[in-house]
Design a protein that fits this description.
The complex is a heterodimer of chains A (285) and B (426).
Chain A (H helix, E strand, L loop, with lengths): L1 H30 L6 H5 L19 H13 L22 H9 L2 E5 L6 E5 L13 H7 L18 H10 L15 H4 L10 E2 L7 E2 L20 H16 L3 H30 L5
Helix pairs in contact in A: 3-8, 6-8
Chain B lengths: L13 H9 L2 H9 L4 E3 L8 H20 L9 H10 L4 H29 L7 H23 L4 H14 L6 H9 L6 H30 L17 E3 H26 L29 H9 L9 H14 L4 H4 L11 H22 L6 H26 L9 H6 L3 H8 L1
Chain lengths: 285, 426
């Protein structure tokens, strides 16, 4: 019988404690309303981006992913590693084994001299992974204004709305002077202290508005052999498409397998339903 | 146990006869989930979720054992070995997505199973032990799920482990020592990752053991049913096989369609992007959030922001979070209404609805950043949560006038039950 008494006491103890917390929180919220921060008012959600890999039947637009790879090779790789991707993986992009061999050989990867045992650099093999541009994080920091350029292999999955985020970041660099958000508020008028520090670059798609990376792409940064458009917008889309592939190389296989699973399951479930109706036909329930 | 009219196992095949004499395992299965187990005829689709939960456990063990063959529980290579599974192991991506989303599916199914129990009074006598073992399974699942999320050693893995083990640090006097002992160090690292892997492999088999006890305890009184009226005569029941094997079979098909849709077409929907960033002890994520199935309890943890006398707010939060689940252990004695099913309890029904809304609010706030107004909303919702279980349920039971119950399951289904009435008179 004791529990009849103890239970409500415990219940009221927790309820009143948390309500006390509510009252103190509400008091604080009224007396010292939370001040909006520059990040809150001026950070932008990613722009809309449509890729062929979107949706339930998405596939890779191979020419586009190849263009993205070219951009990685000519621009991104100066600072960013791609360490979970191997040269052999490039075959999935439509390159022949010989092309992959030649491509791998055009990269220098860390090796060991077979005669002396000393560390050296050698041409890559298809089995090698993409080499990192820096020996370690300390070297990366030293070369990049104290920021480590992140590995790009998983970038498309490691940010909210990853592909759209990559596209927006590439195209989102802006001048901070006179910058206004959609409500017409001017950043530097509201937050004079939010001026982008020396060595950083203003970009409203980046979480804290300022990032160490300078704008990597501009109109005509790369030239494509097939004459595809190389304006900033197209380049940014191509990079996003490439990074979708590096993050999820099995995407096409996953979609295809998924359809077979769903198709089979609809069939099996249909049969299961018929069996169920049949078994229960004489039983009201 | 069984009802007197249960079918008897009667092997005709000589091999099965021989087997039955030496090791009556087929007999056990026949009586547990075969034609020898009479089950109320009126179970609705909410009763499918027990079988679905059992399926999820098997799925997690099978995919998990294969994943363990390729995974390396070492903090320097754990993240890379996960990517190795995703990229180079044959069908590794499918195994990992099936396992990660299998955890979500398992919890989704278990939550329906638990709330089925809340509504239909499945925890009431004579099924208290079934309920208690169920809560034990839920606690084991939470521990297993939490440790599994640590294994890929991404940012959320690391910081989740840090926050959750940090909760033990709130315990007075021994807290800090206990936290270091659990982690095998001052912060999550190799020692913690290795023991989490070991326990993550062990606990599912412990769960399987408790599931056997759970089913055993269930078979003593037999399954409950939506009317909450106990079985009275043969016309109230049907044999589990083929009736419920058929119903569970097609239910499983529907479940698998939804599950496979997630695995193949939105496999990262229930994960956090930050867990695709390798763990970095020097960089704290902007918002540390656990997996979705912990959100209601995470909201309760964070709702306590105010010291109560000598009890620090953090300790209050930890006690409340664990208390929120431990209170389920006392449910059979807190709700002492003699009527089991919420269907016949007009007042309880409303408060059950309020609890669902309350859990949904806590769920939302638990996934939101720890800012206003979410903290204030979760404080109100937390207060209701404790009032519901510890104050309102006993009060409702005392005050409510339940609706008249059907005489028997047969009467509820067919409108009349002559046989049962006669039997009752004699």
């Amino acid at each position: 019988m004791m529990y009849r008494l103890i239970a409500p006491v415990i219940g009221l103890f927790f309820a009143l404690s948390v309500l006390a917390a509510f009252v103190s929180g509400a008091y604080n919220a009224i007396t010292e309303p939370a001040q909006p921060t520059a990040e809150k008012l001026f950070h932008r959600a990613p722009k809309e981006l449509k890729l062929q890999s979107d949706g339930w039947a998405g596939t890779f637009d191979r020419p586009q992913v190849q263009r993205g790879y070219q951009i990685y090779k000519e621009v991104c790789k100066a600072c960013h590693s791609l360490k979970y991707v191997a040269f052999r993986d490039l075959e999935e992009l439509g390159y022949t084994p010989d092309q992959v061999k030649a491509e791998a050989a055009s990269w220098q990867v860390p090796g060991i001299d077979p005669n002396t045992g000393e560390a050296n650099m050698r041409p890559g093999l298809p089995t090698d992974y993409f080499p990192s541009p820096f020996a370690n994080d300390t070297a990366a920091r030293a070369a990049n204004n104290n920021a480590v350029p992140p590995d790009l292999s998983l970038m498309a999955k490691a940010r909210h709305e990853g592909p759209a985020y990559i596209y927006s970041l590439m195209t989102g660099f802006a001048s901070q002077d006179g910058y206004k958000n959609d409500k017409g508020q001017e950043l530097l008028k509201l937050f004079p202290d939010a001026k982008t520090p020396q060595g950083l670059h203003f970009n409203p798609y980046f979480a804290n508005l300022n990032l160490a990376m300078p704008p990597p792409l501009a109109n005509g940064t790369v030239t494509f052999a097939d004459g595809s458009p190389n304006d900033l917008d197209s380049e940014a889309k191509d990079v996003a498409a490439f990074l979708v592939w590096t993050a999820e190389p099995n995407l096409e296989k996953r979609h295809q397998t998924g359809w077979w699973f769903i198709l089979f399951l609809f069939f099996a479930t249909g049969l299961g339903y018929c069996a169920y109706r049949n078994v229960w036909a004489d039983k009201k329930h | 146990m069984s009802f007197p009219w249960a079918n008897h196992y009667n092997p005709t095949n000589p091999l099965m006869k021989w087997m039955d004499e030496k090791l009556p395992l087929p007999r056990l299965v026949y009586n547990a989930i075969g034609a020898g187990y009479p089950v109320p005829r009126n179970l609705n689709y909410f009763w499918n979720f027990g079988v679905l939960a059992g399926f999820c456990l098997v799925l997690q063990i099978v995919t998990g054992v294969v994943l363990a063959m390729h995974y390396a529980p070492n903090s320097t290579v754990a993240f890379a070995s996960t990517e190795h599974i995703m990229r180079d192991v044959n069908w590794g991506w499918m195994l990992r997505y099936a396992h990660a989303n299998g955890a979500s599916a398992f919890f989704a199914v278990i939550y329906v199973h638990i709330f089925r129990g809340f509504f239909y009074g499945s925890y009431k006598a004579p099924r208290e032990m079934v309920w208690l073992l169920g809560v034990v399974i839920f606690l084991l699942m939470m521990a297993t799920g939490f440790m599994g999320y640590v294994l890929p050693w991404g940012q959320m893995s690391f910081w989740g482990a840090k926050v959750i083990t940090g909760l033990f640090g709130a315990i007075p006097v021994v807290g800090e020592g206990l936290q270091h002992w659990l982690l095998g160090g001052f912060a999550p690292d190799d020692a913690a990752l290795n023991r989490f892997f070991s326990l993550h492999f062990l606990l599912p088999f412990v769960i399987a053991g408790v599931v056997i006890l759970h089913i055993w305890a269930l078979h003593i009184p037999g399954s409950s049913n939506p009317t909450g009226v106990e079985v009275k005569s043969e016309s109230d029941t049907v044999p589990f096989h083929p009736y419920y094997t058929a119903k569970d079979g097609w239910g499983l098909g529907v479940f698998l369609i939804i599950y496979c849709t997630v695995v193949f077409f939105m496999p990262n929907q229930f994960g956090h992007p930050d867990n695709y960033i390798p763990a970095n002890p020097l960089s704290t994520p902007a918002h540390i959030v656990p997996e979705w199935y912990f959100w209601p309890f995470y909201a309760i943890l964070r709702a306590f922001t105010f010291d109560i006398f000598f009890i620090p707010a953090k300790l209050m939060g930890v006690m409340a979070m664990f208390g929120a689940i431990l209170v389920w252990f006392f449910l059979p004695w807190l709700d002492n209404s003699p009527v089991r099913s919420g269907k016949y309890r007009p007042m309880f029904k409303w408060f059950f609805g309020a609890l669902i809304v309350d859990m949904a609010v806590l769920f939302y706030c638990g996934g939101a950043p720890a800012e206003e107004p979410y903290v204030m909303i979760s404080q109100i919702a937390t207060a209701y949560y404790f009032l519901h279980f510890l104050v309102l349920l006993p009060l409702i039971a005392a005050m409510e006038r339940p609706k008249p119950l059907p005489f028997s399951i047969t009467e509820a289904v067919l409108g009349a039950d002559d046989a049962a009435k006669l039997a009752a008179k004699s």
